Amino acid sequence: MRTLGPALLIASMIVGPTVSGQGQPGSQTPGAQEPRPAPRWPDGRVSFTGTPDEVGNWEGPANATIFFNIENGKRITPAASLPTNLTVDQIPFKPGFKEQYLSRASQAEDPHTRCKPSGGSRFWHTPYGIEILDLPETQEVIFLGVGAPHSWRVVHMDGREHPKDLKPSWYGHSVGHWEGDTLVIETVGFNERFWLTREGVPHTSQLRLTERLSRPNFNQLRYEATVDDRGAYTAPWSGGWYLRWSAGNEPFDYLCQENNRDPARMIGPQE
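User: That's the sequence. What structure does it adopt?
Assistant: Structure tokens below.
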């Protein structure tokens, strides 16, 4: 990931030993060196990018879940998922929505496999790298997803409110602000044509999604989302996962329609 323009050049970098492939903060193996601190911009804000000398971007974990499933009485906890996530039986589904979730286990109807945009938290599963561009000159943060339809999200940081009567869209309308080192994003105006996460979590157009991004160390991005959707759930709930820094990774020419490796999953399980 490269910085853009003089205002985005990092004046200095907090250095330390590189630790790769981490799961959760503090999960280093015995004797391992402490992870490098997150870099910062000249004004002291935490940076979600690389540096001119250390390019890279974020790898969305395909197997992470926003809540834990239970199989044969055992909780399934993918390493990248937040340890604070709820279990599926704790999610306040409205009638019919848990059944909708369970029906998507085969992923045969997954819109992502048909090269549709991945809205909401699903964006943070995107393969091949996620770029985060912090643009204080325009008071925007832009997220670029390399995989899927090679699309992007814009977060407005200028204090504006959501427009009235939004036309439902794949990514909705996002406004954000900083709470210390955490970027807080509120998005409304979603359509119902995508799955909220890779494993098929349902939502309706009433979804109000609050996402919190932080960088515990150089190699990790912590993503947590609060789902407030009174169409599908009786109360708000939260969950998330960690993304891994992929050193040297940069956007490349990728078109889902030319690189779709998922057609086999579209037909569903075979008898």
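The longest helix spans residues 97-103.
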